[in-house]
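[Automated response] Your request has been received and processed.

Submitted sequence:
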Amino acid sequence: MDDLVTIAARAGVVGVALIGGALFAFSAFIMAALKRLPDAEGIRAMQQINRTVYTPWFMGPFFGTALLSIGATVVGGTNAGEPWGSTLAAAGTLYVIGVFVITAAGNVPMNKRLHAMDPDDHDAAAYWKRYLVVWTRWNHLRVLASVGSVLLFVESATLVE
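Generated structure:
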């Protein structure tokens, strides 16, 4: 069991680091760059980003890490007496709630609304101004959750005897 926990924790580190790094790029500079563009150009650019994110290179780690994290939450929770149990459960839970759920409930609905807009429409420009602020706040939370989750996955791997 300990070998499987170590493998799962290390896989969690890799998965969360990949996704967290992508999310960090948006918080660190991508959204700021899009904000500097004229509204219609920024909207078009984000619409293209949102269309191209649906690739195996992003969605594989995104969903794969979510599945691994659900498993980590269950295995850690049912082995709370083990030194690694609670830490592994916390790592998985933080990714599932802080990254996956926030994405599904916060960022994706905003992306879908933006996708349906004509970038040259006045209402789109007004939405874009709000989108830049609110979407980025949600993203900052996803980045923080990724950092916490990766640290907890690392810690759980070190606690395996």
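Summary generated for your ticket: The mean pLDDT is 97. The radius of gyration is 18 Å.
If you did not submit this request, please reply to this message.
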